[in-house]
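Quick one, tokens below:
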């Protein structure tokens, strides 16, 4: 049996955190042979709820669960962690846009970046989920000067999964038959869900769907799905978000499948003409905890306009929080 690794989850008493911790303890994220110690963080008022979560984890008798600790301090929760899942943030409510969350949530990620820098394992991998995730990832990373930029990413896997589901429904194929789909840019309504390189079985996705369906149905469904979920259930996505976190980390740590890639928001290095210094979703291949942006994809003029539009939103967000970026 391997030595346990430490996994921090912020906002662990919330809906996403509750769905997430059981999957981690079951081995879905890091594999069926990797014991874990869960270090759960939430605000002081939520600690009684967090104690109930810990009781349920204990009662589930997961063979891979080597311990659970509860915290209301980021430095305590992040002590020696190998993986930090930054889920906790003010949630998006009905009628709210991502921009509304910038000011409220920015301070959280300044403090968490500083805490990670001070006490986390030097090879920690950090996934930012709390919205606006891309810019929060930048804030956390810039406030952790002793950690490398490649150790941080932001989640667009939920958008990726939503796109997979829409394409599977339209083509009548299972999601396991679809590969090389890409989410570009920001986890927001400006994201670009790109089918130009996607394959369904042994056929190009573009052979199986029409341009009208892509424009009128597919793209709006992916871009606006979060709002549709809130309208339907009165709360943000929880179970699907937890599943996306697990999938993102699984691929990042254990590697992407052969002949496929994952959509991940990583610090831009200028690939595809995207400005450096923003966390932007690219197609990425992963091996042993390292990501590499897929290079050499042909981007047509119409797609390039979409890539640049979502880039501009991220540049605008960066300007708003510039005073928080050491």
């Amino acid at each position: 049996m391997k030595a346990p690794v430490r996994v921090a989850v912020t906002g662990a008493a919330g809906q996403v955190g509750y769905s997430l911790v059981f999957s981690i303890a079951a081995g879905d994220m890091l594999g069926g042979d990797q014991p874990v110690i869960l270090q759960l963080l939430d605000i002081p008022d939520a600690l009684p709820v967090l104690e109930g979560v810990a009781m349920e984890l204990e009662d589930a008798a997961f063979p891979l669960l080597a311990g659970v600790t509860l915290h209301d301090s980021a430095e305590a929760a992040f002590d020696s962690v190998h993986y930090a899942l930054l889920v906790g943030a003010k949630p998006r409510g009905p009628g709210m846009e991502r921009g509304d969350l910038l000011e409220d949530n920015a301070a959280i990620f300044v403090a968490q970046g500083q805490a990670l820098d001070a006490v986390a394992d030097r090879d920690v991998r950090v996934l930012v989920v709390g919205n606006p995730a891309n810019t929060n990832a930048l804030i956390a990373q810039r406030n952790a000067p002793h950690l490398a930029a490649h150790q941080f990413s932001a989640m667009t896997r939920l958008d990726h999964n939503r796109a997979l589901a829409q394409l599977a429904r339209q083509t009548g194929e299972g999601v396991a038959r679809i590969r090389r789909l890409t989410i570009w840019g920001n986890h927001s309504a400006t994201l670009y869900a790109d089918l130009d390189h996607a394959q369904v079985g042994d056929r190009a996705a573009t052979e199986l769907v029409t341009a009208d369906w892509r424009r009128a149905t597919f793209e709006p469904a992916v871009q606006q799905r979060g709002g549709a979920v809130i309208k339907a259930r009165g709360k943000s996505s929880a179970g699907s978000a937890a599943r996306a976190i697990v999938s993102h980390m699984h691929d990042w740590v254990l590697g992407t499948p052969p002949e496929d890639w994952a959509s991940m928001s990583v610090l831009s290095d200028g690939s595809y003409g995207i400005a450096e210094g923003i966390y932007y979703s690219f197609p990425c291949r992963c091996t042993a905890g390292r990501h590499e942006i897929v290079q050499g994809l042909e981007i047509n003029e119409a797609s390039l306009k979409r890539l640049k539009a979502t880039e501009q939103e991220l540049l605008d967000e960066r300007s708003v929080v510039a005073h928080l970026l050491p």
